[in-house]
Design a protein that fits this description.
single chain, 54% helix, 0% strand
Length: 81
């Protein structure tokens, strides 16, 4: 997020971009089996019109959400606390 210049946008309360970025962190609270569908429905359809956000989304998909990602869903999703 920082390397794409989105860190400052994250702190802005009212912007659509900020709201989108904050929702991303809620993915860790969803059951692993629901992450892919939720991501596709909520985040890919409500994507702010910004190339940096598209790059951020693509990075999340490739490294954290796709079946062959580096970090399988059960490692990072579903808060157990």
């Amino acid at each position: 997020m920082q390397s794409l210049g989105l860190r400052k946008q994250h702190g802005k309360k009212e912007s659509k971009l900020s709201q989108f970025l904050k929702k991303i962190f809620g993915l860790s609270l969803i059951l692993p089996a629901e992450v892919c569908e939720f991501f596709a429905l909520e985040f890919s359809t409500n994507l702010p019109n910004d190339k940096r956000v598209e790059q951020f989304r693509d990075n999340l998909l490739e490294n954290y959400i796709d079946a062959d990602s580096n970090f399988p869903l059960p490692l990072w999703s579903e808060c157990t606390v």
